User: Fold these one by one.
Assistant:
Number 1:
Amino acid sequence: MEKVAVTTFVKRQIKGSGKTYSESLSFDDIAEDAEVQMNRGKFEEGYRDGVRIVTGSLSFTSQFTCPFVKIDENTELISSVMQRQEGEDPYIQTRAKNGTLLKAGRVEYILYRHDVLAENDEQSTEAEWELISIHAIPEGIDKLPMGPVTMMRNQLELKGGTKAHYTSEEWAEAVRFWQKYAALDGG
C-alpha cells in the first residue's frame, strides 16, 4: 500500500486563496482519501513519471469549493504581479472580480512522488507520495488543463517547476481553457 502525506505547498489552498478548498475536511482527511483512492487504482499518470492525478471519492466532491467562474462580457478581470514562493520568478495572475462560482462535478488530487519533489528539494515529508494540489473540476468539464504559467515554469525548468515537456496541443488547450474560465478573486 502506497502512503500519501500532506506537503507544505498544498496548505495554501484555503478560503480566500482563489484555489480549491474545503472548510469541512482537513488536509489529512484529503490525503487519506487520496491514498485510499490511489490504492484502489483510481488514478491516471500525470504529465511525467512520478506525477499522478487521483480521482477523489464522489462523496467528498460536495465538500469542496470550486474557485472558478465562467468568463462572459460582464466579467471584470484584475491582474496582479504575484510570487508563489520565495525565490521563484514573479508572474502575472488574472482573477475574476465578479461571477458565480461553478459547482464541482468531481475532485482530483495531484500527487508527486518523493524523488520528483527531491529533484528541487521541495519534499515536505519522507512519504512515497505527497499531495501537492487539489482541483475541484467544474461540472461539465472533462479535463482541467494545467495553467500556462505552471507549464512554462515546468518546461523551462525554472525555480518551482518540475521538468516536463508539453506538446503544442497541450499548450493550445491550456490557453483556450483559461481564456474561458478564471478563479474568483478571494473565492
Number 2:
Amino acid sequence: MTMKLLLLILLAVVVAAVLALIGFYNSLVRLRNQVKNAWAQIDVQLKRRHDLIPNLVETAKGYMKHERQTLENITQARSRAMGAGSVGEKGRAEGALSGAISKFFLVVENYPDLKANQNFLAVQEELTSTENKIAFARQSYNDQVLFVNNKIQMFPSNIVAGMFNFKVGEYFELEDESEKAAPKVDFS
C-alpha cells in the first residue's frame, strides 16, 4: 500500500512539474510574441514617417533653394534609418533622423512663404502626428520587452527560458540626449 502511495505521489509531482514547465514555456512564448507585435507597430509608424519625408522635402525644395545641404541631410538620415537592422541600429538611425528633422524645422523658420504653404502644413501635421504615434509605439514596445525580460530573468521561469534558449529583448532607445527631444515645430 505504501509503495502505491509513493508512486502516486511521485506521479503527481512529475505531472505538476510538467504542467509548470508547460505553463512557463507558454507564458514566455506569449510574451515573446507580444514583443514582436509591439515591434511591428513601431515598424508601421516608422514606415509612415519614412514615406512622409520625401513629400516634406519636395514641398520645401522650391522655397529653400539655398538650403540644399539641410534637405540632403534629411534624405540621407532617412536612407540610413530605412536600412537599419537591429533594434539598437534602428534607435540610433531614427534618432539621427529626428535630429535632421529638428534642424530642418529650425531652418524653415526663415521661410515665411513655406510656413504658409498648405501642402507643407498638411505634411508637417501628418509628420507631427506620426512622431507622436512612434513615441507611443516605442513606449508600448519597451513595456513588452520589460515584461519578457523580467520573465526570462526571474526564478523559476529563468530555468525554462534557459532550457529553451529565450533571449532578453533589446529596448528601443535613443542614445543621444538631444535626440530624445521631439522636433520643435512652430509655424506661428
Number 3:
Amino acid sequence: MRVGFVNILGFPNAGKSTLLNALIGEKLAIVSSKVQTTRHRIKGILSTADYQIVFSDTPGIIEPQYKLHERMMGAVRSALEDGDLAMLLVDLKQDWQRCDQLFSSLKLKVPAIVLLNKMDVVSADKVQAARMFFSEKSYCKKVIAISAKNDKVSTSLMNEILPFLPEGNPFYDTEQISDLQTRFFVGEIIRGKIYDNMEEEIPYHTAVMVREYKEKPGLVRILADIIVNRETQKGIILGQKGDTIKKIGSDARKDIEAFVQEKVYLELFVKVRPRWRDNELFLNEYGY
C-alpha cells in the first residue's frame, strides 16, 4: 500500500484550493476569485484499498504585511518540512519566470511535480512552451498540464503521484477526509460566503470564530462571530436592515447542512476588534 504526504504550493489564485477539492471530492477549502483566501494548511485525506494520500492545501505565498500573514507563511513552512512530494501549481496566465524564482527559493528537499493549471483557457502552443520552460528546472521531476476545475483531474494525477510515495500503513482512519474538526470547516464555509457576498477589501479584514457547535437530535445549533477591524465594516456586513448578514447566513446554512448532513440552526454576530490581524492574542483565539 502506498502512503504519503503531498503538499500543494504556489502563488495566490493559482488554483490550489480548487485542486484539493477536486482531488478529495469534497469542498474542504474556500474557492474564490479573490486572492489570499486560504489562511490555514488544510489537509485532505484520500483513501482507497491501494493507497492513502494526505494532500495539503497551503496559503498562497506572499510577502507578509501583518502578523496574520506571518502565521499563514508559517503554515507554508510547516508543509515544506514534512512531505514526500511537492506539487508546484502554476497558473499558465501568470509570469512563469516569477513562479520559477519562487519554486527555486523554496529549496525543496523532496521531489516536485510542476502542474500547469488552466490549460483549458490558453493555447496548446503556450502549454507546450511552459512544459519546455519548467522541465529544464532542477527541482522539477515531471511537468503535467491540468485543469483543476475538471472533476477527472484526480484520476489523471494518481498514476503520476503514486510512484513517488513510500509503502506503508495508513496514518488515518480510511473513512476520515481531514484531520481538522467539523467546526473548522463550518467557520470556513461562513468565511467563504463573506467572500462571495462582499466586495473590495472587506473579506480580508474579517475572521470567523465558531463559538458554539451543539448537536441535538435532528438539529445542529451553531453560533458564530464575524470579526472585523472597524465599526464601518460592521455596518457594511450587517447591511440595510440586516439584509446582508441574513444573506450570508442563509447561504452558509445551506452549505453547512450539505456538509454535516443535518438540519442546522445558524446565528451570526458581528464584532469589532481593531487591528486583530496584528494582535497575537486575537490570532490565537481565532485559530491562527
